[in-house]
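Section 3.1: Structural characterization of target chains.
Under the original work plan, the team committed to producing a structural model for every single-chain target entering the pipeline before any wet-lab resources were allocated. The record below documents one such target. The sequence was received from the expression subgroup and is listed exactly as submitted; it comprises 258 residues.
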Amino acid sequence: PTEIPSVQTEETATGAPTDETAETMVTTEATTEPTTAPTEAPTTAPTAESTEAPTEEPHSEFYAEGVSEDQIIAHFNNAGAGEVALVQKWDQPINYRIEGMPNRQDAQTINELTKQLNAIEGFPSIQAATGLEQNLTIYFLKDEDFKTLFSHVMEEQGTYGIVQMWHNDSNGIYSARIGYRLSASQELRDVLLPEKLVEMLGISEVTVEKEITTGLKPKTIIDLSELDWSVIKLLYNPRIHNGMNADECEMIIRELYY
């Protein structure tokens, strides 16, 4: 088995009063009356008006650009595993082992995604099961082995990537396995890998985004949509518990999402 380790503001230029009052010069020899030069009024530079736009209220960490509160609640409910009406998620650390032969890009995708998941508040952690009791097995199998192991669920889930989960009476997921076919193209595996890993967390609707950077060494970046990350963060927030129904979750989401 192959194991993968884990405004600037413009100052008001207030000119000091110039008070450039000319000295009064009295001509004693002249036959006309003494005259005084007119006094200039002090001048002040105009104050620049602020063009700074009003500041917006900061969003919470759960916010997805352009997604309303009602939309995130609808997506949260739709993303529940299968037709289950209650929250089902992991409440214990996930220790995974890999069976088969993933390539370097597969391994990188798994490592990057697990790193991002471990940064989420309330997430119980996911890591390679080195010296630990595993509760998640990730299979990379040849076609015949894949069909043998997953034949009973292939018809309903498809033929290239499959997830199976087991939960206890408290709706906590305690075991799972994921299967990938090695015959799938790399482009397809780049999508299936994160998709099935997230489904394993208790979320059934996942959108994977793929970006290829430019430069001397182009790099393919696989990531979930911003909407999916919001749902994961909400699902694993400490205030959301296994067994909660949609109404209970909605009250909490409306407090957290802004």
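The two ends are 45 Å apart (CA to CA).
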